[in-house]
């Protein structure tokens, strides 16, 4: 086993597409084995932090939904973009016009929103209407120096009824219309991963990020000095990774029907070393990138 | 007067933002002097073709609206993206999923739309809903080789009640989500300007394009070998041109309250030469780009 693997002390877990598929009447469906996997990871003694770009609800509401789906998770264990954005807005004296999901608005309760001098865009879902997009555009184009803050830059995600455009697509629309570049809060921003690692108290070289998004999860974590695993659940689509620029191939890819976390957990007891070994031994390394993966993991 | 100016034989006129501002109950409001300008240009003996990216209605319906607003205009004088797109679809055996305005759909009446193998996007206005964008995205991402055809790539335009996002913004959203580059039919595509020039029977070096969009009108026409004038009506906003890449500065900019066409027409009788002189003499050349403009016109 590689030396670094023995040093792994913490996991960052994406949620949507890794632990469950969102959408539908109950708010989502767990991916087989993932609730059990979270329990096993915690029992193994590894540190665990959930690192999500979820912006369709407050952390409180989101965590309550996940608990209802059977997950052992608490608000403090979740690193999400909205609280990070609020810190940034306060630091820089920015007053946002919000283009976000109704359920996310309470996260910005103590932020001054009068006479906006920036736009904050999240995964607004049904709030991505023609009228709302025009309104956000007019605020931006009316500013002497437009500031656009985007809660993530995902291209799309999978819900129970199919793929949906994510915030990144609408971010690009506003960027193009106003000739600005958005500031991304959330994955793949380096500062966001760093705050998640700080919550765990684990340095990047001792942590693994597990996610389904090649850019936000894999690329972002690698930029931050972590190793990254791309799961083949959620939005994962065969052959799609190649078209997108990330620093390196995913360090590992899972070829399992169930969640990556499940894959890890299924091969561990309470032994941290055994779990780390499972990461290397049980994962299915993409054949086409084997040499590069080896190098990356050397 | 420059030698080239004596050779000008035709004008291409953008419509929205140059002749009228769209929107509102009557469908739009003419820009002062523009209807009279069209009459004078026609009386002067100059060739005239309207070159628009309008895709919120069929050409027939659009022309009828403009006639109702007092313009001397016929369907044959209008070069628009939808008929050009239909030619392209037929040539390549493409069956579109349409994300366009309801009123544009009849332009595609004789196009096979079963089992789509491409997406055509126009200025769909209210049809740019979250559900419709997701639907177009799913068609595209489901294709082995996604083909996205965009009727123009404008960033925004001005209606009577304010600025609105144009098709280009939504095109960018789908491009990003699907990692594809759209094929643009309409301005600034070279083939589109060439077909407008062919309608007039005037070569590019003997024609001037007049429009309010620095990329679609000015940049596109210049790429095609024409000279271009940017009006300061419509979407024109001071200081915005500099941020956008076009081959050259606009050859001229108007600093008038009324339309550029009105500006031309106000200084001409029936003499073609006098009109061409007016283009040079009455236009207000942007001070900041005087040298480059001189060179371009030399």
Automatic annotation (TrEMBL), chains A, B:
Keywords: Cytoplasm, Hydrolase, Magnesium, Metal-binding, Nucleus, Signal. Its EC number is 3.6.1.1. One of its GO terms (molecular function) is metal ion binding. InterPro entries: HAD-like_sf, HAD-SF_hydro_IIA, HAD_sf, LHPP/HDHD2. Transmembrane segments: none annotated. It is found in: Cytoplasm; Nucleus. GO terms for biological process: phosphate-containing compound metabolic process. Phosphatase that hydrolyzes imidodiphosphate, 3-phosphohistidine and 6-phospholysine. Has broad substrate specificity and can also hydrolyze inorganic diphosphate, but with lower efficiency. Belongs to the HAD-like hydrolase superfamily. This is Phospholysine phosphohistidine inorganic pyrophosphate phosphatase.
């Amino acid at each position: 086993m590689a030396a670094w693997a023995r040093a792994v002390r913490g996991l960052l877990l994406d949620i949507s597409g890794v632990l469950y598929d969102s959408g539908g009447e109950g708010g989502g469906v767990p991916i087989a084995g993932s609730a059990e996997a979270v329990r096993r990871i915690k029992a193994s003694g590894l540190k665990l932090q959930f690192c999500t770009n979820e912006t369709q609800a407050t952390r409180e509401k989101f965590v309550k939904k996940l608990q209802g789906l059977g997950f052992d998770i608490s608000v403090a264990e979740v690193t999400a973009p909205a609280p990070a954005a609020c810190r940034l807005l306060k630091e820089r004296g920015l007053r946002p016009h919000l283009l976000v999901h109704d359920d996310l608005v309470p996260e910005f309760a103590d932020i001054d929103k009068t006479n906006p001098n920036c736009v904050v865009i999240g995964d607004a879902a049904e709030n991505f209407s023609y009228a709302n997009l025009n309104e956000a555009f007019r605020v931006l184009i009316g500013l002497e120096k437009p500031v656009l803050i985007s809660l993530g830059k995902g291209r799309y995600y999978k819900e129970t009824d199919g793929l949906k455009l994510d915030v990144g697509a609408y971010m690009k629309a506003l960027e193009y219309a106003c000739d600005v570049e958005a500031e991304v809060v959330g994955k793949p921003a380096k500062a966001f991963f760093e705050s998640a690692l700080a919550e765990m108290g684990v340095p990047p070289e001792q942590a693994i990020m597990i996610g389904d998004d090649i850019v936000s999860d894999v690329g972002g974590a690698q930029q931050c000095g972590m190793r990254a695993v791309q799961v083949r659940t959620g939005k994962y689509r065969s052959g799609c990774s190649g078209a997108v620029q990330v620093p390196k191939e995913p360090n590992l890819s899972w070829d399992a029907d169930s969640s990556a976390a499940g894959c890890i957990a299924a091969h561990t007891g309470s032994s941290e070393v055994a779990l780390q070994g499972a990461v290397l031994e049980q994962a299915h390394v993409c054949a086409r990138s084997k040499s590069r993966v080896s190098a990356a993991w050397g």
